[in-house]
Amino acid sequence: MSCATCTPSGACHKRRRRILSCLCMILDDVPHILDNIVKLKFRLSDMIEPDFGLLDHLLSLEVLTRREYEKVCAGDKAKYERSGAMLDLLVSEDQSKKLLKALQRTGQQHVVNYITQEGGQLYS
Question: Are 43 and 110 in contact (CB under 8 A)?
């Protein structure tokens, strides 16, 4: 398993770089990411940390426009309200995949796992 930025043997010079660059392979195996996000929105709004870089990444990836960015950040909203407002703006699979990349880049791999595993499984 390797992608364009990996060496021919599939190993990158830095593990983090390989993880970030190979995320595209993982996303190709997960259909309907947007459907998962919509289904899990209530829980995701509590899990996602919108501050400390996530919204900036979404702006740079052109998932959010400057106006949408400011709308999410406007006022004295709680963290879950900002996250929920940001999730409400996602309208395409492409935007959803970019969200997963941004989440991973901001240290929120657990949220990526939660989305790609459709909320996980309950064990009894």
Answer: no
